Structures are given as C-alpha cells and as structure tokens.
Amino acid sequence: MSEFADKVRLEEIVRSKPSALHVTTDTTVQETARILVKKNFRSVPVWDEEQGRYVGFIDEMDLLEYAVFLAHSALDRREVYSTPLEEKFAHFTPECIQKLSFGNDPVEIILKLPGAERRKCHLFQANARLINAMQIIQEYERVLVRTVSTDYLNYKVKMFVGRLLTRIHRKLDYKILTQTDILKFLFSHIKDLREEDVNKTRVRDCGTFQPVISIPVNETAIDGYLKLMDAKANACAVVDKEGRLVATLSPSELRGMTNQKLKFLLLPVMDFFQAMLGIRAPSPLVCTVDDNLVDTMRKILKASTRRCWVVDAQFRPIGLLSMGSIIRCVLVNPCKHL
Questions:
Q1: Model confidence pLDDT, tens digit, residues 269-288
Q2: Candidates 3.40.50.1010, 3.40.50.2000, 3.40.470.10, 3.10.580.10; correct CATH number of 2-145?
Q3: In sequence order, what DSSP letters do the residues of 43-101 get, joined into one string?
Q4: Are 325 and 309 in contact (CB under 8 A)?
Q5: Largest CA distance in the chain
C-alpha cells in the first residue's frame, strides 16, 4: 500500500473538496468558537494578512486550553505550564470554572500558547505525492493543499498579430486534507489488493499503540480534559470501578461549546455527555489485537470517528488505535498488503 501511496497525487483526493474556510490572526477567540459551532467544524486554519500565508490551525481543544489558561491569568503563566498536573490544577475550583470564557483576545494568542508545534500549518502543492503528506499527517491530523482553480467562465479569446491568445482567470485555492480523507481513499483501493495479503494484517501489526489516558465515571469532564491537555493526547477512556471501558471523552464533545455551556465541564463526565450531546454517551468503538486491520478501518470510518480502543478480554482498554497509527503502519510497510 505504501508503494501505491507513492504514486498518488494529492489532487486526486482533494479535487471534490470545498475550499478551506479560515479565520485571521485578529479574529477574536469568541468569534472563532462561533464559527466552529455554526459550520460544525473540528478545526479552522488561521490566515495572517501581513505575512500573506496560513500560520496555524485552531481546534476545539485549543479553545478550551485558552479558556483554562485565561482562568489562571492571575498565576505566573510559566509556572502554570511547567508544574505537574496534580499541582497545576489542584485549586481548579468551581469559581475557576466561572472564569472560563472564550474571550475577545485575538485568536493569534492561542498560536503562541505552549505546544505551538501541534498547531503548525503544513502546506503541500496539489501535485505532491500522497506518501509525503502522510509523513506529516500521521502526527498533525491535517494539512493544507494548495491548488490552482481555473475559471473558464471568464475567458476571452483575442486575435492579435495572427495569433489566438486565451486569457484564463486563475487563482490559488486551499483545501484541507485530513487523516479521514486519506483513510477513505486508501480503503476505497483495498479491493485492488490480493485478498490473501489483506487478510494477513492484524491490529497488533500497527506496533506500539497510544497510551491509555483514563478517568473513572465519577470524575468531572474538566478532569478528563485537563489530563488530555497535560498528556497532549486526544482521547480519554472513561472507565468503571473495575477498569472496564464505558465511554470515550474527546475534543469532539466540545463541538458546539459556547460561553454559556462551559459550566457543563463541572458535571460528572457521564452527565456532561447528556448535557452537550442531548443523548447518553455513545458506546465506545473497540477492537482486539487479533482483529483484522481492514475490518477495523471499516468500523472507524463508518462510525465517523478517528480512533478505536484496543481492549482485553475483560473489556479494559490496553491501548488506542488512531488513524495516525494506521497511516504510520502503511508508511513503514513496503509490501502490497496493509
């Protein structure tokens, strides 16, 4: 599959995607939050007018991290990000929650928070090879692809000195390429591989899984998100008293978050799902180390999620299989099967 990815150009994948909607560095954090809610986006690129280029990506977790950071503005900011989690937020009280806000600071301030590398914007030309983009997107989840759109409706043909001159209006266009886009594309070409090769690959062949970050069901949603911030992870397992997986807390649950809903973060995590989603926590997506990888890819794509928990016989999470893990597996595997 990696040999196949080496031949594919990005334009084949993004051709039918809409142009990227962006905010600018001086767009307020509050307005950025509104845009994510209105458009139902997970993230949005940030454009710098002075530099004339994209300078980063902002997602829901970044907005929450900013709000937490702002609530601790009375503290030494360097100290907030250099101490262990249990000390850092030992005094994160209900009063602190009341201070949480998507404020009127420019969104540029988020790009300067610790961990700025994660928000970096990587740009590829449309004729770049898929395998090159996969090298970056396995870690950064999304990249921008620059294409040139040709508007044939504005063409004019002129006769000049016996030659036909065609003037075609061309403009640069940017599209977002995500891990989901890549896996959907790769999955659509699975049928071209030999069946016996495809069946060889198991979940365990993805190598080391992402470590498990977890909270018990009786802890609050903010406890889980603070752990994710500290670990720079994107999924938290919610477990019962026996350690069995009950639900998944991720940045996706922050979609639709407003200043008025920030108080929901103080709720026990299972109540938080009800408050934010209007339904009970969805059942977590799971697999075992012996499951077929292609079948697991199919489950992940069908569930419109970015991950699958690897569980043991007692339904206890032992690792996290992410889209990035699968892409990494494809990259290091030169064979014709996954």
A1: 999 999 998 888 989 999 99
A2: 3.10.580.10
A3: EEEEEETTTTEEEEEEEHHHHHHHHHHHHTTTS-HHHHTTS-HHHHTTT--HHHHHH--
A4: no
A5: 85
Q: Which two tokens stand for residue 74?
A: 């009375």
Backbone phi and psi for residue 282, each to the nearest 5 degrees, phi listed first? -60, 150
Question: In what side-by-side order are the strands of the sheet with 43-48?
Answer: 23-24, 43-48, 53-59
CATH superfamily, domain 192-332, is: CBS-domain (3.10.580.10)
Q: What residue ranges do the domains of the chain occupy?
A: 2-145, 192-332
Residue type for position 251: P
For every residue of 86-128, DSSP letters joined together read: HHHTTT--HHHHHH----SSBTHHHHTSS-GGGGPPPEEETTS
Alpha-carbon gap, residue 178 to 122, rounded angstroms: 12
Using the structure block, give the residue that is written with the tokens 């997986």.
Answer: 245
Measured CA distances, 290 to 201, 274, 329 (Å):
9, 33, 15
Residue 5 — very low, low, confident or very high, per pLDDT cuts 50/70/90?
confident
- Euclidean distance between CA atoms 330 and 206, whole angstroms: 9
Residues 6+ apart with CB under 8 A from 10: 124, 125, 126, 127, 128, 129, 130, 133, 145, 177
User: Which token pair is 148?
Assistant: 């040139």
Q: Rounded to the nearest 10 degrees, what angle do helices 269-277 and 221-231 cross at?
A: 100
Question: In this predicted model, what pLDDT tens digit does every residue of 146-192 receive, in sequence order?
Answer: 987 654 334 434 334 434 444 434 457 899 999 999 999 988 887 76
